[in-house]
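WARN no homologs supplied; continuing
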Amino acid sequence: MKKGFWIVVREIIRKSDIILEVLDARMPELTRNKKFEDYAKKYGKKVILVFNKADLVSKSAVEIIKNRYKTSDYALISCKMFMGINELIKEIKSKFKKEKINVAVIGYPNTGKSSLINKLSKGGKAKTSSESGFTKGLQLIAGKAGLMLIDTPGVVPYGDRKEILLGLTSAISPSKLNDPDIVAYELIKMFKRNNPIALEKEYGLDSKLDPEKLLFEFGKKRNMLMKKGVVDERRAAIQLLTDWHKGKIRV
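OK structure emitted
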């Protein structure tokens, strides 16, 4: 990750009272940034894991999140459905006695970071200058209930997981991925962990098969064949990811 980005991150953490790390509820660990959390811990700042897009996951996946993160501060929300937003505000307010609370919001692209800021803000946005104690580029946004939201232009660098995150968060068309099969394998692993019955119900696939075999069977059932009956795995992967992007299958 770019060195300059982490300089900005440290500035955000120092200026904040609490941090909201926005995650995609469909793939929490893939969209989680442990290095950022380590920085927050170093500076003694609390982090609330905000699982956005909770409306797109099954009840079993919600229960998995609740059990897996029960020792952490977390919130299940949907910016699109305005679900859990007021509860999140109350949770933040309950941790402080002061009226003005600086809340940093950070997250990978397409997790809903900007949408959450919009839901928490009053609609106004004011970029501060270095003279007021904020690095140029950081934005201080007036939020609801006395919250002051700290945002920064640009995005969290993806690092080594770039293509997988781009493919799974719908940030790029499946057909434009270099290795859609690798991304599809990760998607299948997610379903095998959290909602294996979805693959069986939607496609009639045996969820006990390994990801490579599952993708092969998916392509075979869709008649995605090349010469001599060989399954076109790239085409199969693109189709499976397209179904995922369109919400045809839910983890």
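Strands lie at 18-24, 46-52, 74-76, 101-107, 126-127, 139-142, 147-151.
OK
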